[in-house]
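Thread: quick sanity check before group meeting

JM: Hey all, I'm pulling together slides for Thursday and realized we never actually wrote out the predicted structure for the chain we discussed last week. Dropping the sequence here so it's in one place. If anyone has concerns about the input, flag it before I start.
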Amino acid sequence: MSSLAGSFLIARPTLDDGFFTRSVVLLLQHGADGAFGLVLNRVANAKDFPFPVHVGGPCKFNGFILIHGQDDWVDDSEQGAAQICPGVYLGDAACFKRIVDPPPGHGWRFRVFTGYSGWGPGQLESELSQGAWSVVSAGQQQVFEIKLDELWLRLVPSSIPSPSVN
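JM (edit): ok, ran it. Output follows.
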């Protein structure tokens, strides 16, 4: 299977999992060693930060992950490596410094995550073959402009009803 990095994983209605039910995951990496992504539509209960924090998945780590839609924050030489999907980039320490004290009316597009979603070798492929996820193209508009509580409903592919066996 070719890499799905830069795509959305949309939880199918049949995926009945305590964490991933109705989730939208942006895949940052996918290959023979497994997959790594961020759940976009889960907000953390974090009140001590000057920005909203999202729960990227059930896997814990120390620190945060930042994604943003500001192409002027990325050096030309790093554009390809930093871009996750069209118009969405992985942030670095300099990006974090910017968002901690933003100027009034900045209009910046970014999301900060704690935790991540991870799959071991072959695990995601197995879940895909079982019909747990749909794969959908990702882009800046979906990541930053659709309200979080509408994201899954707007992106989940319509299902074709199963034919009656009567």
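AS: nice. The beta strands are 7-11, 24-31, 34-39, 53-55, 65-68, 83-85, 88-90, 110-114, 117-119, 133-137. The longest strand covers residues 24-31.
JM: adding both to the slides.
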